[in-house]
Task: inverse folding
């Protein structure tokens, strides 16, 4: 298990998100911006993210990628940052700036990010989350997406979701990262406090890409997921075929409230309001139908988006 298992998962998740975002952004525009800001130490994530662009040298030809990195402690990071810069394609311009999340709006404006694709990763652990101005600055990207790491949360924060939605991110999903306890009971170090990851976007395909990345990270990292919407707080092993229990409960609760919903509506609910992928919805609905816990209309045929599911 890594010394900082939650940090390792966050790092891998960001790298995977960059791997999927970069080709899409550069296909859409000749310029794009990746911005990352850290309240505390980056734990090696900042230079791991920067190194992603080394692998896209061919795709970057004739295009420009600006990478903005903001961190409070920059001395050690500057050494690592400089080492990675020497490997970057000439089309990548990387800037390292001292500061915190509040400096992001100025950095994005100076970097000419407005109107171009923007992906922002903000690690606010150890401090307050981003304010409205910081979130609004990210939405000046066209299109924009935001990945947040936040301190141990209480219940799912409706204010954050509302703030993100009002800022221009209609699609928001959340997941808690929970480190496993040490295997040896005599070890003095306690598992790290849980952290919440929030992803916000305006594009359904990008939400799907995030969910794919979420379930593809290292299953042996010593971290499990917890669905903020699951009242039982069940911990889920990272797997390409996650345990369906919490999703069964959440879909049944949704149908108990709504009475009925189309498969399309339930897939959208799954993608936004649970840790699961939209595609997991059909798998779980099949189990619920077989168990006689829900009904469908029409009664036979493929479980397509316009099929209506009714609570029994």
Result:
């Amino acid at each position: 298990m890594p010394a900082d298992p939650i940090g390792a998962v966050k790092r891998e998740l960001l790298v995977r998100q960059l791997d999927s975002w970069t080709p899409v952004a550069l296909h859409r525009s000749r310029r794009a911006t990746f911005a990352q800001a850290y309240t505390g130490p980056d734990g090696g994530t900042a230079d791991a993210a920067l190194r992603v662009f080394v692998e896209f040298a061919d795709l970057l030809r004739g295009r420009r990628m600006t990478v903005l990195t903001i961190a409070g402690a920059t001395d050690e990071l500057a050494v690592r940052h400089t080492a990675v810069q020497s490997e970057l394609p000439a089309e990548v311009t990387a800037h390292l700036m001292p500061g915190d999340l509040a400096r992001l709006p100025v950095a994005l404006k100076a970097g000419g990010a407005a109107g171009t694709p923007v992906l922002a990763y903000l690690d606010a652990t150890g401090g307050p989350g981003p304010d409205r101005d910081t979130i609004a600055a990210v939405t000046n990207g066209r299109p924009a997406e935001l990945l947040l790491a936040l301190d141990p949360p209480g219940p799912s924060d409706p204010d954050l979701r509302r703030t993100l939605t009002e800022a221009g991110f209609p699609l928001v999903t959340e997941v808690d990262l929970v480190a496993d306890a040490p295997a040896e009971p005599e070890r003095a170090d306690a598992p790290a406090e849980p952290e919440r990851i929030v992803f916000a976007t305006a594009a359904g395909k990008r939400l799907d890409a995030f969910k794919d990345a979420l379930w593809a990270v290292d299953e042996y990292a010593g971290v499990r997921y917890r669905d903020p919407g699951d009242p039982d707080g069940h911990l889920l092993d990272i797997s390409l075929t996650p345990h369906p229990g919490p999703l069964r409960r959440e879909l049944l609760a949704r149908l108990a409230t709504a009475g009925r919903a189309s498969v399309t509506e339930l897939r959208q609910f799954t993608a936004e309001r649970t840790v699961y992928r939209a595609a997991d919805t059909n798998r779980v609905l099949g189990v619920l139908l077989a168990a006689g816990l829900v009904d469908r209309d029409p009664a036979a045929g493929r479980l397509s988006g316009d099929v209506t599911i009714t609570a029994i």
